[in-house]
From TrEMBL, chain A:
Residues 248-277 are annotated as: Disordered. NCBIfam families: ABC_phnC. It is found in: Cell inner membrane. InterPro entries: AAA+_ATPase, ABC_transporter-like_ATP-bd, ABC_transporter-like_CS, ABC_transpr_PhnC, MetN_ABC_transporter-like, P-loop_NTPase. Residues 2-246 form the ABC transporter domain. Keywords: ATP-binding, Cell membrane, Membrane, Nucleotide-binding, Translocase, Transport. GO terms for molecular function: ABC-type phosphonate transporter activity; ATP binding; ATP hydrolysis activity. This is Phosphonate transport system ATP-binding protein. Signal peptide: none annotated. Its main location: membrane. The keyword Cell membrane applies. It is a peripheral membrane protein. It comes from the Bacteria.
TrEMBL record, chain B:
InterPro entries: MetI-like, MetI-like_sf, PhnE/PtxC. Belongs to the binding-protein-dependent transport system permease family. It comes from Vreelandella songnenensis. One of its GO terms (molecular function) is ABC-type phosphonate transporter activity. Residues 80-263 form the ABC transmembrane type-1 domain. The keyword DNA repair does not apply. This is Phosphonate transport system permease protein. Keywords: Cell membrane, Membrane, Transmembrane, Transmembrane helix, Transport. GO terms for cellular component: plasma membrane. It is found in: Cell membrane.
UniProtKB/TrEMBL annotation, chain C:
InterPro entries: MetI-like, MetI-like_sf, PhnE/PtxC. It comes from Vreelandella songnenensis. GO terms for cellular component: plasma membrane. One of its GO terms (molecular function) is ABC-type phosphonate transporter activity. The keyword Transport applies. The chain crosses the membrane at residues 32-51, 92-112, 251-268. Keywords: Cell membrane, Membrane, Transmembrane, Transmembrane helix, Transport. This is Phosphonate transport system permease protein. It is a multi-pass membrane protein. Residues 88-270 form the ABC transmembrane type-1 domain. It holds the Pfam family BPD_transp_1. It comes from the Bacteria.
Length: 277, 271, 278
């Protein structure tokens, strides 16, 4: 469904963030993208919805060539890709309902959104999604009054209100405690199954990735160095992705117990500044 | 090296090195001579005969001001209302114009660097010129009256509000903006949902603060003919009616205190 | 949460389930909400109605406005060069001397107005000085000083110095009230006298901001010096006023451009000085 061919990103400073990425994502597949900080994970998913402009290559979502779009066409393409962020990226001073409804911005005109006159089906769907993520009582709370896990749930509801075909998930658990992290990952997983959504999940935590993804792609210094099933991920492969480390002490996945800290991730010196900002 | 050896071979501590010490002396010398030079310019342009007289003039002035002619206050209600209107309407128009200018001037919301320089130019010229000078200009153009005052206050407020607001816009969190763009929102929608809620408190605070300053400034605009209580002040001074001037001063003092109190309360409520 | 608020919340949830949702109003109490809105509209109508505009005069002024804009394209620095230079020199000297004097005088006033180091009568006196100096516009004070000291830059300088005292002393007093008292006590514990305490514990904490504020005030004083000339207190304002009343817009434009340039220069250098002191 999503196809990346030869995607390359070079920053104006000359840093190479991504080099010749080839990737195909079938419908309904949940793919985890792992790799050290600065490997280009964030850049890669931001290239897909063009928050970051790729320098070269083609990105196709179904029949649309995303790299050539601009203006309204780009807005329409973005509608079909929901994004979930590390720091939740909610607008703190808006209410939970307004935050969720902002997922519909690509569908409604400016004045409608300015006056908050959303169509009834959008509001009903937003409420249903809030019920699904477990926050129906919070519609009038301000976003900054929620806890981290609750905010991420609002972020998920917002992404789903776009009725996306694809979810782009950037470090969904990096700011959460281990238990909440697992709950959030399970929620994302379930929602993908319910709606037959494909997802790309950037994640630091290899154990979580192995447990919740159908497929794992390892990124190192802007290149794909591993692409396979979670069970194929061995210590040698982790070494090629992250560099030398004693991988056997990586904690085994446990169910819903407060999981251990994420594995030690060495930062490679001198790499491209991979973050999108 | 602040620690050196004395001739006896003992370490001695000085606050500064010899060179730094000399540089500091030189700077002081330069500063003081500049000050004295400036003082000489002023003193050359001063009639010292008048200055010797200052004490007597001052006490004379005070004796004419007191007691205030309280019944004059009845004439002042209408000018006071005008003053209030100049400040309030001027602030309202000013912030309405400052709002788009700030968005054009902020690095993260400007459509083009050239537009940004133009917007910054507007802000700088508006800020550099005192509202009294704006009023002087507008009175020669539009003729004397409240309208010139309102526009003068508005023009001066653009720069002040615009500058503080664009700094606030540049300091917003980028992630919510990114998230709203990722939903497929248009540029205006991103501003409305991603940027606006983040700057709203700053905007309200700045506006009330500027309103408070504008109340003070509008009390004197009448000196150049731009309406308000300053007109009465000017007339009273020209007629040497100092006991009316003192009434006006007391009125201004009270108004400013009240507006300062209101502004402080509102800002407190917002934050 | 009260029962009423809870009922409202569940009613809103029910409505949202059916697709009906409106943003919560900014002010919850409807009586206040409507009261404020209607009050605002009534004020606006009354205020606008009381603005008398002589439209014939405004129409006449439109031509002048165009002249003025034209003058900005071709400012005339030459024909009144002597007046401009003299006015500018006066303004700059007034600015500098008044800032120096004002800051020097503001230090004792500021110390006196800090509640934690000064006795009550002194505190009240200093606060009164600050209040008077801050409330009245420079131009009003200038009128009084012109009457006392005669026309010319001396009155202007004293005006600006007086305004500087109020501005600086207030901020200085606030700074001293927020001092880190542990440092002061540490110095005092060594047996230092009052002066030594000031020098070693208070001054280092307050100094960087004091320098930054002085430079900022220098900038303000220059802008104000362009204004107080209107009432005869010397400086570039007098030159500007004369050129405007003679309708010599090209000279006025030149003066305004010079003022803008100097203010820009001041701002640029003051941001440098502030970075250097911190």
């Amino acid at each position: 469904m999503l196809t990346l061919r030869g995607v390359t990103k070079r920053y104006p400073t000359g840093d190479r963030a991504l080099t010749d990425i080839q990737l195909t994502l079938p419908k309904g597949q949940v793919m985890a993208l792992i790799g050290p900080s600065g490997a280009g994970k964030s850049t890669l998913i931001r290239c897909v919805n063009r928050l970051v402009e790729p320098t070269q290559g083609s990105i196709r979502l179904e029949d649309t060539e995303i790299t050539r779009l601009s203006g309204n066409a780009l807005r329409q393409a973005r509608r079909s890709m929901g994004m979930i962020f590390q720091e939740y990226a909610l607008v703190d001073r808006l209410s939970v309902m307004e935050n969720v409804l902002s997922g519909r911005l690509g569908y409604v005109g400016f004045w409608r959104s300015f006056l908050r006159r959303y169509p009834e089906d959008a509001v009903a769907e937003a409420f249903r999604l809030l019920e699904r993520v477990g926050l129906p009582h919070a519609i009038d709370k301000r976003a900054d009054a929620l806890s981290g896990g609750q905010r991420q749930r609002v972020g998920i509801a917002r992404a789903l209100l776009q009725s996306p075909k694809l979810l782009l998930v950037d470090e969904p658990t990096a700011s959460l405690d281990p238990k909440t992290s697992r709950q959030i990952m399970r929620l994302i997983r379930e929602l993908c199954a319910e709606r037959d959504l494909a997802a790309i999940i950037n994640i630091h935590d290899v154990a979580l990735a192995q447990q919740f993804a159908d497929r794992i792609v390892g990124l190192r210094a802007g290149e794909i160095v591993f692409d396979g099933l979670p069970s194929e991920l061995t210590s040698e492969i982790l070494t090629t992705i992250y560099g030398e480390e004693d991988w056997d002490t990586t904690p085994e996945p446990m169910d819903d117990e407060p999981a251990a800290a994420p594995p030690y991730v060495p930062t490679l010196q001198g790499l491209a500044a991979g973050g999108a900002r | 090296m602040p620690v050196s050896l004395t001739p006896q071979g003992l370490p001695a501590w000085q606050r500064r090195t010899t060179r730094a010490q000399w540089l500091q002396y030189a700077a002081w010398l330069l500063g003081i001579s500049l000050f004295l030079l400036c003082w000489k310019v002023i003193s050359d342009n001063t009639m010292w005969v008048f200055v010797e007289d200052a004490g007597r003039q001052g006490s004379d002035l005070l004796s004419r001001m007191l007691p205030p002619r309280w019944e004059y206050a009845n004439v002042l209600w209408k000018p006071m209302w005008d003053t209030l209107n100049i400040a309030t309407l001027g602030t309202a128009i000013g912030i309405m114009m400052a709002f788009p200018v700030a968005f054009l001037a902020a690095r993260n919301t400007t459509p083009h660097p050239l537009v940004r320089s133009a917007a910054l130019m507007v802000i700088v010229s508006s800020r550099s010129i005192n509202s009294l000078i704006w009023a002087m200009l507008l009175v020669t153009i539009l003729g004397p009256g409240v309208l010139a005052g309102i526009i003068a206050i508005a023009l001066r407020s653009i720069g002040f509000v615009g500058k503080l607001l664009y700094e606030a816009i540049e300091e917003i969190h980028p992630t919510p903006v990114e998230a709203i763009s990722a939903t497929g929102a248009s540029r205006l929608q991103v501003m409305n949902y991603g940027v606006l809620p983040q700057i709203m408190p700053a905007f309200a605070g700045i506006s009330v603060y500027r309103w408070d300053i504008n109340i003070r400034e509008s009390t004197v605009l009448g000196l150049v003919g731009a309406g308000g209580i300053g007109l009465q002040l000017n007339a009273s001074i020209n007629n040497l009616a100092w006991n009316q001037v003192s009434v006006i001063f007391i009125m201004i003092f009270a108004t400013v205190l009240v507006s300062e109190w209101i502004s402080a309360r509102v800002r407190h409520a917002i934050i | 949460m009260s029962a009423q608020a809870e009922a409202l919340a569940s009613a809103r949830a029910q409505a949202a389930r059916q697709g009906r949702w409106r943003r919560l109003p900014l002010i919850e109490n409807p009586r206040w909400r409507w009261g404020i809105a209607i009050g605002g509209v009534v004020y606006l109508v009354l205020a606008l109605a009381s603005v008398e505009v002589n439209w014939a005069r405004v129409a006449e002024g439109a031509g002048r406005a165009l002249n003025f804009l034209g003058a900005f394209m071709q400012p005339d620095f030459i024909s009144r060069q002597n007046d401009i230079v003299a006015g500018l020199l006066e303004s700059l000297t007034m600015t500098l001397t008044s800032t120096v004097l004002g800051v020097l005088l503001a230090i004792p006033v500021g110390l006196g107005a800090a509640r934690n180091i000064s006795p009550l009568p002194l505190y009240l006196l200093c606060r009164a000085i600050i209040a008077v100096s801050r409330t009245f516009q420079e131009i009003i004070i200038a009128i009084l000083f012109v009457v006392m000291f005669g026309f010319g830059p001396l009155a202007g300088m004293i005006t600006l110095a007086f305004a500087t005292i109020g501005f600086m002393a207030k901020l200085l007093a606030e700074d001293i009230e927020d001092l880190d008292w542990r440092q002061v006590e540490a110095v005092r514990a060594t047996g230092a006298s009052w002066w030594q305490t000031m020098n070693h514990a208070v001054q280092p904490q307050v100094m960087p901001r004091l320098i930054g504020l002085s430079v900022y005030r220098l900038d303000i004083n220059f802008r104000e010096s362009a204004v107080i000339g209107i009432v005869g207190a010397g400086g570039i304002g007098a030159t500007l006023n004369t050129s405007l009343s003679r309708y010599e817009y090209d000279t006025s434009a030149a003066i305004l451009l010079i003022i803008i340039a100097i203010v820009l220069l001041c701002e640029y250098s003051s941001s440098h000085v502030r970075r250097w002191t911190q």
